[in-house]
Fold:
Amino acid sequence: MKKTLLALASLAITSAFSLSVYAADAPAASAAAQPKTLEQVHGAMWPKSVDGYVTKYQCMKCHGDYEKLGQMTSDLSPNPHKSHLGQVNCEDCHKPNLAKPVLMCNQCHNFTIRKIEKPAK
Structure:
């Protein structure tokens, strides 16, 4: 009985503190499925250029161009793939050693990305 209560309490605490990519908008991740870094997700497929840096063109080979990415993230405000700076390098936001992107726009702005609520039909 004590082991069951301890297991349930541990599960409740773990669930309460789980992380997500967009904490305010995404469903909570389980303790077993913590967000992975880009290096962990890509593994041996992590693209490398001759000088050791990843370029946006290498990312676009698999993930599509900024037009496609902008459509995929059209429910976010501001849309991180529609920038007045144009097509910045993906690694400016997506760091290989981090699970969550770092919004490079916040070097000048103070944005918080939020999901746009769509009206019910």
